[in-house]
Design goal:
- This protein is of the alpha+beta class and 300 residues long.
- The protein folds into 2 domains: 3-143, Arc Repressor Mutant, subunit A; 145-298, Multidrug-efflux Transporter 1 Regulator Bmrr, Chain A, CATH 3.20.80.
- 39% of the residues lie in helices and 17% in strands.
- It has helices spanning 3-21, 30-36, 41-52, 56-74, 79-85, 91-102, 106-111, 171-181, 183-190, 251-266; strands spanning 149-153, 156-164, 195-199, 212-218, 230-234, 237-245, 276-279, 292-298.
- The two termini are 15 Å apart.
């Protein structure tokens, strides 16, 4: 591990945390925050969530609720104004969220003297009414020692079908890809072609129904793309890969440990090209517990 590389990730995320914590009334601009961390918005989202234990939006919401609790306990600001400051346009929505996190309505909370106004925080950073920002504690669940292979990959030509919508519905696009490729799909898979998913948008920056991803199959250079199938290419380069065995709904946690724990500890930096999921067996004929997925990130 190169300490300077680990420190660069720590410093970048600490800068973002400090900026967000001291600008709670500003709209969350993922592109600007990602640029400050020298990452693409998509890679930034995964690195931040992995290191901090919260997504950027979850971090902002928690600090705003902690500020609301402090305002209720120490000031006479009307509850409606506190709700607005916390980012809620409706008093009812604020009351539901506040009760869910603090176990009391805003009015009940104000009526009962409280010493602490903090919520559980994996990173250890809380709202400070004096404007201070403490150093965050990077998440550590063993991800820094997960098994990862680094190798050089050639450029890969992909036949793709675009999916627009929630990422967990990309299976529909794979169905369409299979229909459009027809018998060629089975032949390509038999020859070693790989099924790949590419994800393009940070989930918090865009509404779920607008998220862009691609269902893809690696194809040879002489393959003729049928109608409705788009060619894309993955660049050649060094990739870090880890294999997950088990259901796909566990992949989010694997990505979190991979990019939020292994990457900062590795001495490597992620390149500005897509990270991919490669499906190594057929989920229709394989038990869920045996599904194998290779997660790969491009390295600078």
């Amino acid at each position: 591990m190169r300490p300077d590389t680990r420190s660069s990730y720590l410093d970048a995320i600490q800068r973002v945390i400090a900026h967000v914590a001291t600008h709670l009334d500003d709209a969350l601009d993922l592109e600007t925050l990602a640029g400050d961390a020298c990452l693409s918005p998509f890679h930034f989202h995964r690195v931040f969530r992995g290191m901090v234990g919260e997504t950027p939006m979850e971090f902002v919401r928690r600090l705003r609720l902690e500020r609301a609790a402090w305002q209720l306990a120490t000031t006479t600001v009307p509850v409606t104004a506190v709700a607005f400051d916390a980012g809620y346009e409706a008093h009812e929505a604020f009351t539901r969220a506040f009760r869910q996190h603090f176990g009391a309505s805003p009015t009940e909370f104000r009526a009962t003297p409280r010493v602490h106004h903090h919520l559980a925080a994996p990173c250890g950073v809380h709202f400070d009414p004096h404007g201070g920002v403490s150093s965050f504690v990077p998440r550590s669940t063993g991800g820094s020692t997960m098994h990862v292979d680094i190798d050089s990959q050639p450029a890969r030509r992909l036949a793709t079908v675009r999916h627009v919508g929630p990422y967990n519905q990309i299976g529909r696009a794979f169905g369409v890809l299979g229909q459009r490729l027809g018998p060629a799909m089975g032949a390509l898979l038999a020859q070693g072609g790989a099924m790949i998913a590419l994800y393009h948008d940070a989930p918090e920056g865009i509404a779920p129904e607008e998220l862009r991803s691609d269902a893809a199959l690696v194809v040879p250079d002489d393959f003729v793309m049928p109608s409705g199938v788009t060619e894309q290419r993955l660049p050649a380069g060094r990739y870090a890969s880890t294999v997950h065995v088990g259901p796909y709904d566990q992949l989010g946690d694997v990505w979190q440990r991979f990019m939020g724990e292994w990457l900062p500890a590795s001495g490597e930096r992620v390149a500005d090209s897509p990270a991919v999921e490669i499906y190594l067996n057929n989920p229709e004929t394989t038990p869920k517990a045996e599904w194998r997925t290779r997660l790969s990130i491009p390295l600078a």
